[in-house]
Each structure stands twice: as structure tokens, then as C-alpha cells.
Amino acid sequence: MQLKIMDEKIKLLRASFGEERVKINEDLSNHTYFGQGGIAFGFYIATSTRELTNILDLAIQLKIPFFVFGSGTKLVVSSRGFKGLAIKNRSAYIKVAAVKGKVTTSGIGVEEALVEANSGVSIKKLNDFLKMQGLTAFIGESSIQATIGGAIFVDSSLRDITQKVKVWDDTQLLDIDISKLKISTHVVLSVTLKIKAKS
Question: pLDDT tens across 133-175, in order?
């Protein structure tokens, strides 16, 4: 009976987001770094923070169990699968939000910048962007394949340069300090990082 109810709920998700976007019976071993994992009842790839929050809001409304993951480098899924919705976070927008520097006779010298990055941005993409902007590359403890949304919970080097975290918390969107971030309640949407210019 419970499986039938879950099936109906996943159908409602598909009606809202499209059958081509919300897949059913997806093999999660195709999405984990170690190629392990069972079948998820529902599967969705969010390509923006708006898509991510929209699917999360509806999952809460329909009382569908869910989990969010990025590149799957640290993801371990039981071979028995997941009786709910697996959401792959591919929100990958990144920008320089502000710069600080000095104006001299030779021009404006940038000393540091605030960089805003979606949680689906990989550590590699972050470093490629920083290099392009003439900023210091981030050297942390995470794999370059890891995404910011997962690394922010475990990488102390990344936490040290984080000024602000935007999170989804049970349908609420909040800007919080890194010290208040909780893996049990928060889904990270984006982070604001303080990055120094290359010397």
C-alpha cells in the first residue's frame, strides 16, 4: 500500500516538473563516484537554485522522502535503493559579487573579492573561475570533483573563507553564518566566499 502511495506522489511530481525531468526507477550507481547504489523511486536533476527549491518545496508538501547530492564523490547508497526522491544538484552559477582594492596612478588594484557560487559548482570549476579572474585558487581538503554544497560541511579550508551561506530550510530561504550550518536541516543553495587577489 505504501509503495502505491509513493508511486502516486512521484506521478504528481512528474505532472508538475515534466515526465522527462522526473525519472522513475533510476539506478543511482550511475551517479555515484564508486558506481554503487540501488534504485531510487524518483530522480531529478536541478540545474538552478530555483529548480532546486521548487522541487524541494513540492517534496515537502507531498511528504516525499528526499536527499540532495552533487557529484556523488562521498555518496553511499544502499543496494536496496531509496524509496523516495533523489535530487542531483547541478546548479552551477558563479560570479564576482564585489571587489575591494585601491585606486592608484596605474589603475585600480584589486586586493580581494567576494565570489558567489551555487552549491552545485565543483571545486575544479571554482578554481578555474578564480584563475580567470586573477584571484587566488582555493586549495582545500576536498576532491576537485566535489561540489561546494557537500564540501562546505567537511572542508575546514572552504569554511574559513565563507562569508555567508544561503540555505533552504523546510521551505524557508535563509542567509546564515557558516557557524549555524547544519547538515541535518539545511540544503545549501549558494555560498559567498572571500578570496584574495593573486600577489
Answer: 989 988 877 777 899 999 999 999 999 999 999 999 998 999 9
Q: Are residues 114 and 157 in the same domain?
A: yes
φ, ψ of residue 70 to 5 degrees: the values are -105, -105
pTM above 0.85, yes or no: yes
Pair 192, 99 in one domain: yes
Domain of 82 in residue numbering reads as 2-89
CATH code (residue 188): 3.30.465.10
Choose the weakest-confidence range: 96-105, 126-135, 148-157, 169-178: 96-105
117 in Cβ contact with 190 (< 8 Å) = yes
Could you tell me if 99 and 184 lie in one domain?
A: yes
Instruction: Express as a percent the part of the chain with pLDDT over 90.
Output: 74
Q: What are phi and psi of 145, to 5 degrees?
A: -80, -20
